[in-house]
Amino acid sequence: MSQPHSTKIALVTGGSRGIGAAIVRRLAADGAAVAFTYSSSEHKAKAIVAELEAAGGRALAIRADSADAKAVQDAVALTAETFGGLDILVSNAGILILNPLDDYSLEDFDRMFAVNVRAAFVGIQAAARHMKEGGRIITIGSVTADRSGFPTSAVYSMTKGAIASMTRGLARDLGPRGITINNVQPGPTATDMNPNEDDHERLKPLMALGRLGEDREIAGLAAYLASAEAAFVTGASLTIDGGYLA
Ligand SMILES: NC(=O)c1ccc[n+]([C@@H]2O[C@H](COP(=O)([O-])OP(=O)(O)OC[C@H]3O[C@@H](n4cnc5c(N)ncnc54)[C@H](OP(=O)(O)O)[C@@H]3O)[C@@H](O)[C@H]2O)c1
Predict the structure, then answer these.
(1) Catalytic site residues?
(2) Example GO molecular function term (predicted)?
(3) Per-residue model confidence as pLDDT tens digits over 186-204
């Protein structure tokens, strides 16, 4: 049986660790040629490329700080040039800076928006120029767009709310071209962004399933949205949170 993404070319931003790395692995396992960006985890990025190539796949790691719009545009161009096009963009790279209201600096505010929001828009703008009918764009937002849950998270929640509304807006721009765009909203997921075991224990009772998510579970939803089967889903924010919002 042919793989769901054979002949497809994908770019995942922030693919060196966590949810992004799981999406890279899943799209590659489904047959896609996969490029991904990273900002600092060079060893991990190279190890993923080696792993995917050893399994017979095509992979490319690109150092591109999402805070730098030109670096994101160049990563899109390099992907299309290297693999001969672009069918799937997963805008995943994100950072989390938590601080109380009184202490939240403008520098941190601007960095949060540069990485979590501006880079997503810039990457989508650049990627859509390469996409044909059937193109797929997936943003990784967060359940915090709908429920902040705890103090200090207002700016992060704001960036993820912006991703949800951008996704709705761009569905209208891209729909006439047969390109879909959807937003995956994970709940608490066990990655480096969520490293503290005490936090995990505090979160578990808030989850209907009593546990945090795993990166490969989030990757499964992204892979579905990237598939031909998801052709009628667009502009949606899909929550995958173990019942955190339930
Ligand atoms: N974990 C959760 O509970 C959770 C819940 C909801 C939503 N999310 C969202 O899911 C996405 C992935 O989160 P995660 O938990 O997998 O985080 P993570 O484990 O911290 O991994 C973040 C990834 O993004 C890359 N990255 C960070 N800053 C970057 C920058 N400036 N430029 C380029 N790449 C950058 C990192 O690469 P380097 O190591 O090279 O910097 C890494 O590959 C984020 O958008 C996050 O907001 C996470």
Answers:
(1) 156
(2) oxidoreductase activity
(3) 999 999 999 899 999 999 9
Indicate the top mutation candidate among 23, 26, 39, 143 to test ligand 1's pocket, ranked by most ligand atoms within 8 A of CB. Answer: 39
pLDDT digits (tens, 9 = 90+) for 19-43: 999 999 999 999 999 999 999 999 9
CATH (one of 3.40.50.720, 1.10.600.10, 3.40.50.2000, 3.40.50.12780) for 9-240: 3.40.50.720
Report the chain's mean pLDDT, rounded to a whole number: 97
Using a 6 Å cutoff on CB, does residue 90 contact ligand 1?
no
Q: Phi and psi at residue 131, in whole multiples of 5°? A: -85, 145
- The DSSP annotation for 119-166 comes to HHHHHHHHHHTT--TT-EEEEE--GGGT---STT-HHHHHHHHHHHHH
Compute the distance from residue 176 Cα to the ligand 1 centre, in Å.
Answer: 31
